[in-house]
Write a structure and sequence with these properties.
single chain; 297 residues; 2 domains; 8-stranded mixed beta sheet; Rossmann fold; alpha+beta
Length: 297
Amino acid sequence: MAESARDGATPSREKTLADGEPSLSFVNQGARVRVIANSPRVLELVRRVLPVGSQIEGSDSPDVLFSLSVAAGLASDEAPHCLYLDSVLLQRSRDLEPLLRRLESELHFAVATNARSSLFVHAGVVGWQGQGILLPGPSMSGKSSLVAALLRAGADYYSDEYAVVDAQGCIHPYAKPLAPRVSADESRPPVPESIGYRTGTQPLRASLIVSTRFSQGEHFAPATHGRSRGLMILIANTLVIRERPRFALDRLMHVAGGATTLEGLRGDADEAAVWLLRYQDAGRSGSAPRDPPAGGR
């Protein structure tokens, strides 16, 4: 069983790992992150879950420091394994796999909130006919399901978690493996190309901002909005909007200024995906598909 904590957690009284322990440091989008572990074998597992685009290099002053304290052996029936953020205990478990999954999520979040060169927006992204479709939304809003459906319909994969936006408002690939799952006995989960999907390689301008969530039985008939509503949706899903408002707004205004915003509930993800691609093919003239798809699961 795993126990976890996050915001508001108090520093654990348990001793965290010392600086002399084996460590791995990387830089991604200007964010500097270090992971300390008491086992070189565990650090090899950590390498599998590093965010895409990470460059291994030393750092004496990381922005974020994680520690993995592993009990004797990778499977422990006695003492639990522990994951720390600085001196705060994030999670403990007698099984290493939940800690690796948690660490992977935390590493992506650390890069997203400490990136210096790009802005991270909580959104799925696909490419279609050289333009981007942006799906902003919080966790558990159905982004990944709709991204997967768009890939099945032929779109190019850019991200199912974060849109990475440069100073000109272009969106760059952040193609982490789909449905992440890593254990001590598994290799890293497949990248989209290995399961038949194309991964985008070039920056895109977003032509659609789609704000939607699943609702059983809904017909997908989204309302069309202008740039101001699109900007507000992006702001609501931008991680550093309070800490770096000017940095964020400069980039978000570029994105929203060139995109049509669609907003509404959806039913079946595959049918909504087909609708969106037909809309995209019709251009931004307002001649969207007239018949919304039937809702489903």
